Amino acid sequence: MLEYKKAVPDDYTKVLEVWEKSVKETHDFLSQKDLEFYKAAIPDYLDVVELLLWYEDKQLIGFSGTQDEELAMLFLVPEFIGKKFGSKMLIWLLENKNIQKIDVNAQNKNAKAFYLKHGFVIDSEDETDGFGKNYPILHLVKQKENE
């Protein structure tokens, strides 16, 4: 059964391990240099979001980070990708955190398809990410029920 707990600073090492494994699996467009850059930057954002660790039968499967109505982070341990855990997490966040916005790397085709499948639409696109790096970002918004 899928369960979550609020992360505390002592959990950040686990979060970073999941993040790195997940990114290596899903972000093959990142250079090694940029991977290291983001890995160093991520800890600065963990205190800014509501960080939840997600478990299935006491095994860590991933984490999410939300801020207001935005999903800022959703990462899974690679062996749980494609097994509906991301969908379960997202549905819970949509229902309980009223998620309305998500930014996703345009080059991450699977993530883009995942969020579009869950009722998000592309609102706008930036040619670079928030750090000014050449990774286009899609700004997604939750499609209104009557659209």
From TrEMBL:
Domain called N-acetyltransferase: residue spans: 2-147
Pfam families, per the entry: Acetyltransf_10
Keyword Membrane: no
TM segment ranges: none
Lineage: Bacteria, Bacillati, Bacillota, Bacilli, Lactobacillales
Keywords: Acyltransferase, Transferase
Transferase as UniProt keyword: yes
Native source species: Candidatus Enterococcus courvalinii
Protein name: GNAT family N-acetyltransferase
